[in-house]
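pinging the channel bc i need a second pair of eyes. not urgent but kinda urgent?? the chain im working w is below, pasted from the shared doc
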Amino acid sequence: MTRTRFDEMSEAFPDSSQLQQWHQGIEMANRNNIFCHCRSCSYEWVDSVIDAVCSKCGSKDIEHISCWQFPDD
């Protein structure tokens, strides 16, 4: 049987309320902190939604990276 990320997370957080708190923390960190890069026109911006559309060209081909994943230095 193949293990999934969900299986790994369930083992890391055996108490489902802990897993829910972890997910809520990630959601809070993402709020207004999603780096977006348009693959069509190369425009870049920070947004608060994961399914943002490029305001320059209207493309939906967007790369999304949560800003909390970038180092502070």
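so The chain is about 30% helix and 20% strand. and The first helix runs from residue 5 to 12. — does that match what u expected or am i reading it wrong
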